[in-house]
Design goal:
The chain is of the alpha/beta class and 320 residues long. It has helices at residues 39-49, 64-76, 124-129, 137-141, 144-159, 177-188, 198-205, 210-220, 258-272, 276-290, 303-315; strands spanning 9-12, 16-21, 32-37, 54-61, 83-86, 92-99, 102-108, 132-136, 163-167, 193-194, 224-228, 234-237, 242-245.
Length: 320
């Protein structure tokens, strides 16, 4: 992406090399498909595939995994001008396995380049030129310095009139719910767009009903909340109105990264000028399509595929 075209959407967080479990072989062997993960990286790629100018605020190691990420982002049209390379910290890695209880994660991220990120590393000029800064709970959970860096980036965005979007994306292994809730909700108080998932919100707020959860997050200050409810669809809310958006019907095989695809696609469409309802309906279709393949990145659909799926659904009466 040329320097003359700065990113409209900057996604701040931790890229991770992914190994995703495939269906067992007849002889019982378990094989893994190498891919790419990290929630904000996934969201940036999803946004780019929908036509947005997206970039990553991230750090990777001066290693083969870091080289692979740079090549991936450049191939996807994701701006890498705000990606740092570390000679002393590696790129993080994680494994995804699939059980009757859903997908399970095993992370190797302690001491990663992303975890070593500090407020001094935050690129103020790039944020000032963006239209939306996006971060998540994982962006802040990986280390105290990374949490502080996100708060610093949010302060810069607010100072320059840049909208802030925040996805809870809670990972219990990274931090206990009380600390996670305190940090995330402090960030969301400064956000314009909140993107919690229902499961996260129940753990972080102690509330159960989606309506009560929407009340809670709107009460923190964001003007727009998109509550991601998986197979139950999305619940969109502003202080003035609320709307349930049904899920797009597909035959899912792997939900890894579906929430990230929703977030990136939703923010891309908001940047393109869509009303929040239209952006959410579009993002719901993109997220559903992303579950029809394995891995976090490979199945993320491009805009043409999303538009075609929406056209077919409208023709069969599956979209309201």
């Amino acid at each position: 992406m040329p320097d003359a075209m700065p990113a409209d959407l900057l996604c701040m967080g931790e890229p991770m090399l992914e190994f995703n479990q495939l269906p067992a072989e007849p002889d019982g062997r378990v094989l893994y498909l190498q891919g790419y993960g990290g929630d904000t990286s996934n969201a940036a790629i999803a946004a780019a595939r929908q036509g947005a100018r997206a970039g990553c605020i991230a750090a990777v190691g001066q290693d083969s995994a870091g080289d692979a990420f740079l090549a991936l982002w450049q191939q996807e049209g994701v701006d890498t001008a705000t990606v740092r390379r570390s000679t002393t910290h590696p790129t993080a890695v994680y494994f995804v396995s699939h059980t009757e209880r859903g997908h399970q994660f095993l992370f190797y991220r302690t001491g990663s380049a992303a975890a070593a990120y500090t407020p001094a590393d935050v690129p103020e000029a790039a944020i000032a030129r963006a239209r939306i800064l996006y971060a998540s709970g994982i962006s802040q959970a990986i280390s105290d310095s990374a949490a502080d860096a996100v708060f610093h980036a949010i302060a810069i965005a607010r100072r320059h009139g840049v909208r802030v979007a925040y996805d809870t994306n809670y990972r219990p292994r990274l931090w206990p719910p009380a600390r996670a809730a305190a940090v995330m909700h402090a960030a969301i108080r400064q956000a314009d767009i909140a993107l919690p998932s229902l499961d996260d919100a129940r753990l972080l707020t102690g509330l159960d009903a989606p309506e009560a959860i929407l009340d809670f997050y709107l009460g923190l200050g964001p003007r727009l909340v998109a509550l991601k409810m998986g197979a139950e669809g999305t619940f969109l809310a502003t202080p003035e109105a609320r709307l349930r958006i049904p899920p797009h019907p597909v035959r899912p095989v792997d939900a890894t990264g579906a929430g990230d695809t929703f977030c990136g696609s939703f923010l891309a469409r908001l940047i393109a000028g869509d009303a929040s309802e239209d952006a959410a309906r579009y993002a719901a279709v993109a997220a559903a399509l992303s579950t029809t393949g394995f891995g976090a990145v490979a199945p993320i659909p491009c805009a043409d595929a999303v538009r075609e799926a929406m056209r077919v659904a409208e023709g069969t009466g599956l979209v309201r």
